[in-house]
Design brief:
Rossmann fold; nine-stranded mixed beta sheet; 22 strands; 2 domains; alpha/beta; about 475 residues; about 35% helix; TIM Barrel; eight-stranded parallel beta sheet; single chain
Length: about 475
Amino acid sequence: MVEKPVKVTFRANDPNTASLSLIAKLLGVDIEVASSTPAMPSCLVLQGADFEELRPMLEGSPHFVFVYDLGSSPTLAAEFGLQRKPARTLAVTRVEPAVTGPLSGLTLPVSSESPTMKLDDRWKSLIEADGNPVFAMSGRCFVTSHATVPDLSLSATPGHEPFRDHFAELFPLLMFLRHALDNHCWQAEEACATLIIDDPLLRSRYGCIKFDPLLRELNSHDVAATFAFIPWNFSRTDPQVAEQFRKSPDRLSICVHGCDHTKAEFTETDSGRLDAMLATAMIRMRKHESDYQIPFDPIMVFPQGRFSRESLDALERTGFSAAVNTTAFPVNYSGDLTSSAMLDLAPVYPSGLAVWRRRYPVDVFNFACDMFLQRPVIVVQHHHDFARGFSPFAAFVDQIRALNPRLKWRPLGQTLAKSTWRRRDADGKVQTRSMLAEQRDVPIARMATYSPHKRASISIRRHLSEFRDQYVHRWKFGRGF
């Protein structure tokens, strides 16, 4: 049996070593920078010119080798027919799913010029630009036509998705390292998925959702759902629906969705007001738990997806274990989130809780990248997304399952807990990494105070929102279940 490598080696003379190392650190692998080729079976990353020099020694060896920047070697550039062509689509092939994983068979629209290769029969094409190979393998040797290495230390910008913006330059190396180093890379304890449904009261009907048919569909398709519950509704749950939650804890759960769900309430920056608002939310959720015997996950889903940096600190102080949102960028973002953080298990700022990403079921490619990066699949829907029943979402579930048949649908709290990363270091010791804060029963300092006018305003807003959901949306989108 051929021994496998336990770390990745970069060449000391490679000017991209810092950027390459940052990419490798995403996967947690041990790194060394060397001037000579290691004697043991190793995982080597080389520029084309270095590979040309070392090729006689490496061919037929037990080393895993990744070669980029073929153009730095005129010999290799000619051998692989390197040329630049305009590209509109990147496609991941299905020829080696052990390497390409859940991305196998998927495409990504692009608008750029891409260096491409010509391959002989020894090579398997793994990624192609408009049908022309840009990443290929032959045994333990992998080559990519791209010369650039993305600098993941740069500040991320709102809307920035490194896995899309730098796919062709980034994912060949990630695929190679995962294939070569296997359990020495971060691996999630379990591949998990969760459906989050925002806003509904726990009633037999809310908007386009009837609870009993929804639960039957969840059971039928083996899907778990977490309701993002507005704490203001803490005394308004239907006891019969509460009974269903108690009977199906692996299928149904609730988490925290704001406090009063007023407009952009968590864009507040005053720590005292945030603490009071979160204390109020927590007291209401505990009261709901006591009255209806429905446990809740101390996980915040921000109303309207808007939050401040200060709110993440306040969540941590108040005993929340995580935040989940459609964007990782607060309204007062100051550029201190790197591209590397955007590819991590969950983006985290220097202080405060991590912000786990959730997505609408629009582009399966995004979810496939999450799965490849060992991140959970967290899907968001609203009641009106079920206006045509459960079938559209069931079709999405089938798509996701086809990418990773081992994916398990679990309630949100379980999903985040089982998304803990594990790996073996070069010495064989098991390392773990979690972005889920430890749950703490924090004493409540003070609740938010409301003037009679504000209480009335909140009540009117909530009831108008319910009228919209129950009647206007059903008329506009469809009756649903």
